[in-house]
Amino acid sequence: MWRSSRRTVQRQLSRWVRTRSRNGLRPTGWHDSLKTRIYNVTAEGPVRERVKRSAYERIRESILVGELAPGQILSENALAERFGASRTPVREALHRLEIETLVERAGRSVRVRETSPEEILDIYYVRISLEGAAAKGAAERASELDVARLKVAAQDLANAGTPEERAHTNRRFHELLWAASHSPTLIDLLERLNVHLIRYPRTTFEREDRWRAAILEHEEILEAIVQHDSVKAQRLAEAHMTAAREVRLSMMTESPEE
């Protein structure tokens, strides 16, 4: 769409410039300069908007992977220098991240919000219900393509090697499960919750028994979806997330010696 729009604008611009040139009204270098500005807007959006999105995405990613640690004070000047942006897009990015509760105000400063076992409880409390609702919706509305993708993702988890690979394929299965519910609101809520879980660096799949249990649980959920048994799918998904919560809490309360 952008390419077609850009070609149309440039053809109109060229015709206009040729007309003005015949009348002696074209300043030297004017066409190339204006064409460049129109290309920037029609093809990629204003430069300022691209920088703003980049600042937001890069700061957000740095928080999620732990490069910007929980409790760390965030200076607009330091972030602007680090990410090659001006202070305005950085300030706007921090405002968006505050809405997402990834950062918080501390007096006149902004800092990365701390994580805690209490937050894990809260996240899982909500996610258990939402995950069950997603599985129920998938059992009612999943297409053949949805089911095929879920089967591949379930097999990928069984074949995964390292805890990190297992965590990645597990997230993929759940994202496909949400998509199979065909509920945009539900998907949005689950994605927002998942962002906060990503901030916790350890995965429950560090434990071999949890990985093996999750493989079986995914297969059972998928079978209920294939059978269009929405009640069973919901119950199994809620039990699956409850088990994950218990393992996560156990890991967070382990002593360093364990």
Describe it for me?
The chain is mainly alpha-helical and 258 residues long. It has 2 domains: 47-112, Arc Repressor Mutant, subunit A (Orthogonal Bundle), CATH 1.10.10; 117-252, GntR ligand-binding domain-like (Four Helix Bundle (Hemerythrin (Met), subunit A), Up-down Bundle), CATH 1.20.120.530. Helices cover 74% and strands 4% of the residues. The chain is built from 11 helices and 3 strands. It has a 3-stranded antiparallel beta sheet with strand order 1-3-2. Helix 6 packs parallel to helix 10, helix 8 packs antiparallel against helix 9 and helix 10 packs antiparallel against helix 11 (230-252). The radius of gyration is 25 Å and the shape is elongated.
Descriptive keywords:
Arc Repressor Mutant, subunit A; 11 helices; 2 domains; 3-stranded antiparallel sheet; Four Helix Bundle (Hemerythrin (Met), subunit A); mainly alpha
Strand and helix map with partners:
Elements: H1 2-22, H2 30-44, H3 47-64, E1 73-74, H4 76-83, H5 87-99, E2 103-106, E3 109-112, H6 117-141, H7 144-159, H8 163-181, H9 184-198, H10 208-226, H11 230-252
Antiparallel strand pairs: 1-3, 2-3
CATH homology superfamily name of the largest domain: GntR ligand-binding domain-like
User: Biggest sheet: strands side by side, in what order?
Assistant: 1-3-2
Helices and strands: which structural class? mainly alpha
Helix and strand pattern: HHHEHHEEHHHHHH
* CATH fold-level label of the largest domain: Four Helix Bundle (Hemerythrin (Met), subunit A)
